[in-house]
Amino acid sequence: MIHSMTAFARAQSQGAWGTAVCEIKSVNHRYLEIRVHLPDTLYELEQAMHELLCQHVKRGKVECYFRFQGIDSSNQPLQVNALLAKRVLEANQEIMKLSSVSGAINPMDILQWPGVIQSSEARLEGVHREVMKLLEAAVKDLLEARLREGEELKNIFLQRLDSIKLELGRAKDRIPMILQHQRERILKYFSDTQIEMDKQRLEQEMVMFTQKIDVTEEIERLETHVNEVRRVLKQGGLIGRRLDFLMQELNREANTLGSKSVDVDTTRASLEMKVLIEQMREQVQNVE
Questions:
Q1: Rounded CA gap, 263 and 110, in Å?
Q2: Is there a contact between 39 and 70 (Cβ–Cβ < 8 Å)?
Q3: Contact of 22 with 64, CB cutoff 8 Å
Q4: What is the DSSP string of 109-137?
Q5: Per residue in 95-129, pLDDT tens?
Q6: pTM for the whole structure
Q7: Residue 3 and residue 287 in contact, taking contact as beta carbons nearer than 8 Å
Q8: Is residue 185 a contact partner of residue 36, using CB atoms and an 8 Å limit?
Q9: What does DSSP assign to residue 2?
Q10: Which of 44, 174, 203, 282 is the most buried (most CB within 10 A)?
Q11: Over the range 127-151, which residues count as b (16 or more CB within 10 Å of their CB) and which as e?
Q12: Phi/psi of residue 68, nearest 5 degrees
């Protein structure tokens, strides 16, 4: 499977703690660049969110936006940690026994004991957990979107590779015809000028011409690169940079093929291949 670097995902969650919306968009980039935009209430989660995104996304420019609307806690009843308050009372009674001091403990003193009244920070921990779950859901949707587009890109690549293979076949088929045409042209020249034909000279001319137009190596390399692109696509994973390199090699061989061409059809095949390679190269920039 291959993944595109271009995708968008949105997730929303609502509960007693409030409402949160997460939006993630990613575009192509040479490396991995992640930016997380958070309201002040969730600022503490920036590092954890960054790490979570790094676990799932390996390449691309990723922008993550959060909007959060918490429930107004001013009208919420205070939550008392009854178990802790009981322990404070028991400890107070033990101290009074040891010190032989009598008297009832002031309830306000118990309420002021750290942790007896549940703090807003404790409630905020629950909000943080919900927000991280929301991010995980958004990341899952993002990866699915990147995968769907990646599969579409794969189909485009395979179609272009089939077309390149077809053009290579045409170029190979033209070589014997080009050589035959050149032999006939030389023979006609000798016939028209009524010059006695030197068979050895004819063979020398044909050898020189064959060497000049020999594109066997370029065609074989193009076929090899096409097969390698297919293998990489089948393998999947992080293949963007590998495909980018192969596009450069394909383009170089197609240029050489065109420069050696002495035939209109071969030149046309070379140009068509360069167009197909350029189309793939542009799409490769979106592959992770």
A1: 97
A2: no
A3: yes
A4: HHHTSTTTBPPHHHHHHHHHHHHHHHHHH
A5: 777 776 666 677 777 767 666 665 455 466 778 88
A6: 0.70
A7: yes
A8: no
A9: -
A10: 174
A11: beebbeebbebbbebbbebbbebbe
A12: -135, 130
